[in-house]
Amino acid sequence: MTDKTSAQAQQKFTNLRKRLDQLGYRQTLGLESLPLVEKLFADLVHTTDSLKNAKLELGKQTTESNDVESAIEPYKSDNAKLVKENNDLHQQIIKQKDESDAIVKELKASLRKLEHENADLKFLNNQYVQKARQLEKESREKSDRILHLQEKNFHAVVQTPGGKKKTIPFRRQRMEIDTIVPESDGPSRLVIPNPEDPYIADLLQVADNRIAELDREIRRLNDEKDITERKVKNFREQVIVFFN
């Protein structure tokens, strides 16, 4: 048994020594160190094989990585372009937002101004309407006064056969008599006021001038009212367009 063990140990020593020599490890090796060296050599072989396999795997992965890099290179270029475009668009959006905020701010200020102007125009319009109504009322009163003065100052005097005089308003254009006028050698007396009486002429002239003045004022106020209404309508349309 001892001889067999010794033979096996000798065989292991010989094989190990040969392999160490092949690998360049030519240092002295004793039998007592055989188990340790054998274990270290086995670990060395295992490590060497693992390293070789790792290198092969690394080479394979490197090749695959290069292939992947080559395949994704166009996508990298496209991605860089997209990133640049995205950044440019982001800057444009920021710029447009700032411009939009400025425009909205300006429009709000314009809207407030238009609202104030609209309120002022409505107030002026109401004043103009009231003034126009007042002028129309004054015009009617003046017209009625003129008619009253005309009826008071322009009249016809008719003398009846009984010798009485009867005053008839000129506008009525008719006469009332008690009996039929008999035939007479001379014409009946008919007293008609002179239409060229300076007092009446002056009164009519003053009335006509005032009426003409009131008519002009009414037309002017109506024109201003129309202009104001058009402005208000225009402002309303602008406001509607803005909110739409």
From TrEMBL:
Keywords noted in UniProt: Coiled coil, Cytoplasm, Cytoskeleton
Domain of life: Eukaryota
Gene Ontology annotations for the cellular component aspect, listed alphabetically: centriole
Subcellular location per the Swiss-Prot or TrEMBL entry: Cytoplasm, Cytoskeleton, Microtubule organizing center, Centrosome, Centriole
Keyword Signal found: no
Main subcellular localisation: cytoplasm
Coiled coil location: 79-152, 204-238
Membership in a protein family: Belongs to the CEP135/TSGA10 family.
Name assigned to this protein: CEP135
